[in-house]
Amino acid sequence: MKSDLKKLLEDVKENRISIDEAILRIKKEPFEDIDFAKVDAHRKHRQGANEVIYGEGKTSDQIVKIAETLISYNNGGVLITRISKEKADLVGKNFESQKDLEWKYFDNCRIGILGNSHPVDVQGNIVVVTGGTSDIPVAEEAAVTAEFLGNKVVRIYDVGVSGLHRLLAHMDEIMGASVIIAIAGMEGALASVVGGLADCPVIAVPTSVGYGASFEGLSALLSMLNSCASGVTVVNIDNGFGAGYSASMINHMGDAK
User: Cβ–Cβ contacts within 10 Å for residue 18, how many?
Assistant: First the structure.
């Protein structure tokens, strides 16, 4: 693959192909097959960030090999979601000898980061709001993901609708946001309230927090899908990662070329 890239650059140098055509070819480069996984090493060229490793269902050895493949392309840090503490300890031990690769594990949201996060490269803030303290693990998954992708994140936790004055005390942060992630279980009403206050996109995340009739987040999901507030979009139950990634894309739209 590296020899192919060298030839491509030589073709550009000799004016056999244009720069734009070369960029398109790089974006369409194939994956690397490591038997149990086909690693998309060129995703950063297409989407601006590395492929993210989903930790659940993978062994620690598989996670290590996928991460090593991504790192070998010098594409920056690697984000690993839904990785247990046990697996994270094994992954961390594997990279202990590589002093240039820092390993961080966030136990409260089960995220691991190998290498460096993206530097903050955008002015806007992403505000992460939760209905209750029990929603914080999902909120932290969103917040850590957004921070990894180069965003400034403001956290406002435990400001649900049962005590609305708590949310209204943070109007400066709400009105100053570029994107808001509203995270709630139970009846999921927080997203509509935030959507009615904010002048920016709101990404709603239903959580599985709640009693029996919440149906493990289904009630909150349906409430958010039926929100009367304009500008509210909804991701899947407990999908903090998806919300954080989407919020980052929105926050960077002003820099898109």
Answer: 11
Same domain, 82 and 182: no
How far is the C-alpha of 237 from the C-alpha of 257, rounded, in Å?
33
pLDDT at 32 over 80: no
Give the count of domains, the chain: 2
Amino acid in the structure at residue 81: T
Domain, as residue range, for 54: 33-114
pLDDT at residue 235, as a whole number: 97
Q: Does pLDDT of 27 surpass 70?
A: no
Are 165 and 216 members of one domain?
yes
**Structure confidence at residue 148 as a pLDDT band (50, 70, 90):** very high
Cβ contact 109:84 at 8 Å: no
Q: At what angle do helices 190-197 and 218-225 cross, to 10 degrees?
A: 30
**Distance of alpha carbon 80 from alpha carbon 250, whole angstroms:** 22
Predicted pLDDT of residue 1: 44
